[in-house]
Structure formats: C-alpha cells, structure tokens
Amino acid sequence: MGQGHLHRLHRPGDTVIHRLPPQTKLVALFAFVVLVVLTPREAFWAFGAYALLLTAVVALAEIPSRVVARRALVEVPFVLFAVLLPFVTPGPEVEVLGLSLSTEGLLGAWNILAKATLGVVASIVLAATTEPRSLLLGLERLRLPSMLVQIASFMLRYADVILGEMERMRVARESRGFHARHLGQARVLAQSAGALFIRAYERGERVHLAMLSRGYTGTMPVLDSVGATTREWTTALVLPAAALVVAASAWVVTR
C-alpha cells in the first residue's frame, strides 16, 4: 500500500505521541472533538483550557508552532463565514469599534472559530504523528467497515498517480503554447478535466482487472496488525479525560 502524497503531512519522530498505536490516537481525537463540540459556547474559559491541553500535546509531539499555524490555514473558509455572522444575524446588537454587530452573531462566530480551530489543530497533531498507512491499520483495528478502509487505501495509493497525470497534461499544454490567463481559455481546461477523468477511469479498470487476476475477492489481506496495550490506551486517553473534566465543569457552571 503506497503512502500517496499525503505522507507530506507526517513528520517522523520518536516522541511518546508518535509511538502510540494509531487506533488509540483516533479514539482520543474523536472523543476530544466531540467534547469540544458539546461544550457550551458561553464557557469561554473552557476553550482556553482546551487550547492549553492541545498546546501541551503539540509540545510533546515536538511539532513546530509554525507548522501548526501554516497547516491551520485550511480553516480560512470557516473564518470568512464566521466573520459575516455578526453582520447578518438578526437580534439584539452591540457597538464594537463603531460597528453595530449582532450579539447572537458574535456568539455564533466565536462558537465556529473556537471549535473549528481546536478540531483542526487536533487533526494536525494526528496527521503529523501518524503515517497514512498506520491510520488505515488503526481503522481496521477499530472495526471500520472493510470497504471504507479499502476505498481510503486506494485513494492514498493513487492520489500521486492522478496528480502525476495532471502534471503531465499541464506540461503538454504549456509545451504547445497554452497559458491560462482569461476565462476564454476555460474550455481547454474543461476538456483537460474531462480527459483526466477518462484516463483515471480507464486506469482504475486496468488496476481492478490486475487485482482480480491476482486473486482479489473483495477484501484486502491484512499485512500488519497494530495492537495496543492498556498502558498505551491510558496514555492516549489522558487528553479526552482532561477534556471531559473541563466540559463537565463548563456544563455545571453554565446551567
């Protein structure tokens, strides 16, 4: 099973976070995100506590802060949406820097930004400390439907293949003097996208036939098994356990 281009997200290391089995990190991430989402948005201090917990995990994983900040840019669309909420949400308004903003919109924007940022950073830690192939093995250990695991594995394996095909088509276009500079050239790009789809489909057919000729019956053989000890589970669940304490306190305080 190939790593695909997504291996660039992984940062090799030998920290306690890197050494944890992937299934433990997946469960910890899921539990942490669920607790963050369920936390009342009015409990501002709770999100600060979550941020401190994640900061500690990032430090343990030895991930540079600039890497986290750069990868966190993926949430920019959520930020743009959140910025609009105070201006378009109806309800009582408050003056902020001379602007009349909706109180409900401000709370909604805060809710989106805080929870999305915490979820994104937690995902960044998982991707940086776990190889894609290990993630798939972890999903198998968690009894995720095998078909979904196979689809994900094929996606990882052939992402580079499709990207390579796109690059070759781009070079071919530019070698013929084509450079996309205005909307009038969108037709050429659309034709290229159609040709890429056909080539990808045909390659998929060839790969499937090759797999059948090698005895593929609908399931992939398990090449490795990643077990987890009680100690490893305990270590991984420290983060969601601490988050549970924070969330429970937030629920009690805001009642």
- SSE pattern: HHHHHEEHHHHHH
What structural class do helix, strand and pairing data support?
mainly alpha
Query: How many extended strands?
Result: 2
N/C terminus separation: 50 Å
What is the overall pLDDT average?
86
Topology summary:
Blueprint (H helix, E strand, L loop, with lengths): L15 H4 L2 H17 L5 H18 L3 H7 L4 H13 L4 E4 L2 E4 H27 L2 H10 L4 H30 L10 H28 L16 H7 L1 H16 L2
Antiparallel strand pairs: 1-2
Question: Could you explain how this protein is built, in words?
Answer:
This protein folds into two domains: 5-138 and 226-253, no CATH class; 153-213, no CATH class. The protein is mainly α. The longest helix is centred in the middle third of the chain and has 30 residues, at 146-175. Residues 1-6 have low confidence and may be disordered. The chain has a two-stranded antiparallel sheet. It is flat and about 60 Å long. Strand 1 (93-96) and strand 2 (99-102) form a beta hairpin. The protein contains eleven helices and two strands.
